[in-house]
Amino acid sequence: MERHFIKELDDLKMTILNMAALTRRALEKATHSYLNRDDKLAQAVIKGDKEINDLELQVDSISLKLLALEQPMAGDLRFIIGTTKISKELERIADQAVNIAERSLFLCQHPPLNHIPAMERLMEIADNMLDEAISSFVNENFKQAIKIRQMDDMADQATLEVLQTLIEYMVKSTPATEKRILNTRRSIQTIIISRCLERVGDLATNIGEHVAFIVEGVNIKHQKIDFDFS
Length: 230
Known about the structure:
The chain is mainly alpha-helical and 230 residues long. The protein has one domain (3-216): Phosphate transport system protein phou homolog 2, domain 2 (Methane Monooxygenase Hydroxylase, Chain G, domain 1). It has helices at residues 3-35, 39-70, 74-108, 117-139, 142-172, 177-216. Helix 2 (39-70) packs antiparallel against helix 3, helix 4 runs parallel beside helix 6 (177-216) and helix 5 packs antiparallel against helix 6. The protein is elongated and about 70 Å long.
């Protein structure tokens, strides 16, 4: 294998890892901006999105160059295609972090809602799913990659609990017009945050599927997986 081709592959991997680290940090800042009512963190997430977008374009550029000039085969071809797809998922996760930050900016301007345990659980699940997805790519771990799908059911359940909690809150809210409108608006913004987190889980699952393709050359999308690896 040509030395310059190996270097280009290494550059591609380092770029995607840099993108993954920035995306992970953006999600962490976004969730903390919500939990801690920190508008500066929220603004930092929004401001930092351009750097992640630029890295996605960089991944595209490197990948297209490799495909056009090197005509890679087998595992190298899967790596290039899979990495390009992973960059798209990371960019979408970063967009969800921006959405969370924007909702947090609104919520910071108003009194907080009551504590919602399911929301904190959902944040933890989404964080863990993204961590596992990135780790499976770094370690080229097929089993770790496909197990992410199991965690997605937990994210869906937590999202449903957040929705149920806030619907009950809105129904029981004071009949006073202005206050009820504000309660409804705060609840809707919080529901949107929960849906963003659920989407992060879906995108992390997609990353796991791309890693499975890179490592084993199999397409597990829409397939039922037996998670018993004993």
